[in-house]
């Protein structure tokens, strides 16, 4: 407490000590100079006194910049705050999974601007190194006979192995350092899913409190485009990191898919992120706005990694950990979405609604008379188009055999940002209702689960 402190005025010969005085310099180095000891042994101030009162009573000038005016003696057995903080920091860094917490907590002050800046960011050494046990340490040493791993090992791992690791850290490192073998010329995408998920999706979920969804090829039957893998940071509905994957072929094929089918909708964010994978080759990319392209997006390839060898996996591991620290500041720049981007929801009546890049697909269950529903929708949209009803969705495609319809929505999934946008949206809805009523189109109600119009 304050009353336990011993306070002395830092004046020598009627003048304040300067920050470059020998006594002050030695004090900062942990030693007590004879001049300082003399001051400490002299008259003491009370902790309850105000500095102004002491100055006035002793006719002392007000201390200026770079002058020391009070010496504080901490009683024995009481740790200084800095020592407490230092000890706490050391304890935190010695915790089994401290490296994970450090990545989650990192605050990136400024987003890397260029592709080269991003590349440098991905190569940064970790602030808190990953612990490794002796078995995995020896595996890495045995493959470092030429020293090519030394640099990446220094950036990633503690210098000495630990006897034990937490189950979480051990599981992550096992997938990176000593993974199960996978892949051959005859391999399919499914063959690589375990490797891709363990080194990418599961790792990102661990270090950034996010979630991922892997989209199946079932959507291709409806012509619905969604990335093979979508990662959502924390509670965001925005796909901040997406992946396109192939079992074999040219890497440029999934790279092109990352931007050719993407419509830019990410506001003030300079980019979102992604990866293209062909077997064991993985390329990390930034996807940027580009008004010169049809959909407004382009891809910049940052770096390509070979997951078939240890150096490639370690480099990719470091890159992805550093990549994840950029998710939060990027998502913070993007207007929130009400509905999960590229997600699927199921209504109580069994209808599935899948959200894709520029359309929504409604798939009807076997229990519903889908043929009649689809016929009614065709007629409804024919009438709306004939009478130029504004601000309504467009029916793009129907398929009675596969029981689905494809609709192109108007606007975007995000809620209004202010009253003006809300009033604009309400105005547009009322315009549509007026036009529909004029041609005897009636609606049941306007609650969210009853927005299908009837004649």
From TrEMBL:
This is Fungal-type protein kinase domain-containing protein. It comes from Phytophthora cactorum. The lineage of its organism: Eukaryota, Sar, Stramenopiles, Oomycota, Peronosporomycetes.
